[in-house]
């Protein structure tokens, strides 16, 4: 019989048996799976866990601080790596979506390996690499279907923090291999992971880079970050967040004419997208209330001066994907 308390004890003792006195390395993405795993491993092996969180500069507003505030007080030895400059440099002038994903994947591994080496020098080498692999991931990879954490098939070359260095000769620790997402969320609750991370929509590994269409820049990411924050905070405020499977803002490269006071503007168009889905392979656009959308549109154009037009994406998947790149 499945109770989360019981499962936690069992997972902890399994990890302790497997790891012994070894040292464990974990990549934290800020999502529910890796965050929960961080908490579980901290309980199991204490500071023989090092959790590495790469800030690639493609995170949402306040995300880094939220992850740090959630994990560090609960005893996770968390190291945040500021790799923003490297990612920006590597992505400069790159507009092709697949190219962007590849570069981000490559830079991620580089930054992670470099930090792992530094940590190993300081505290001693690592024996194990922990991953938040879930049961559906196991099934799908056994079936030969490449998938990401949200179960989406590999139509886009998905990169997430699961795709880590294979040449490092780590043994894998994957305590969640038999679990479903809902079970991980229950475990997360008992381990004290704050609700905003526990119940979070999936967020892609390449982050805001694939929501900032075309070549990215600091300026564009900053605009997108503010739009996204207004939309996501608004969904929470109006009690609509949990009813959507995923919600996102997109910064398009379209500039159009508008009017603000007595002045003509020529500014960017932001798109909002929200979907409902069970498996992320197909999705419906969420029928958000018009009044809510009106409020979001007003807030965005009032608070983000670089935006003078807001549109809502009313396309299902297929034919559209959830992300715009
Ligand atoms: P699409 O856009 O293919 O997305 O309908 C389906 C789900 O997958 C997520 N997604 C990604 N996740 N790396 C990830 O970790 C990626 O490159 C990536 N691309 C899409 C997307 O957010 C949605 O949940």
From TrEMBL:
The keyword Ligase belongs to this UniProt entry's keyword annotation: yes
Top EC class, one word: ligase
Catalytically driven reaction(s): XMP + L-glutamine + ATP + H2O = GMP + L-glutamate + AMP + diphosphate + 2 H(+)
Zinc is among the record's keywords: no
Keywords in alphabetical order: ATP-binding, Glutamine amidotransferase, GMP biosynthesis, Ligase, Nucleotide-binding, Purine biosynthesis
UniProt binding sites for ATP: 29-35
Coiled coil: none
EC numbers, comma separated: 6.3.5.2
GMPS ATP-PPase domain span: 2-200
Pathway the protein contributes to: Purine metabolism; GMP biosynthesis; GMP from XMP (L-Gln route): step 1/1
Role this protein plays: Catalyzes the synthesis of GMP from XMP.
Subunit structure of this chain's protein: Homodimer.
Protein name, per record: GMP synthase [glutamine-hydrolyzing]
Residue window of the full protein shown: 190 to 514 of 514
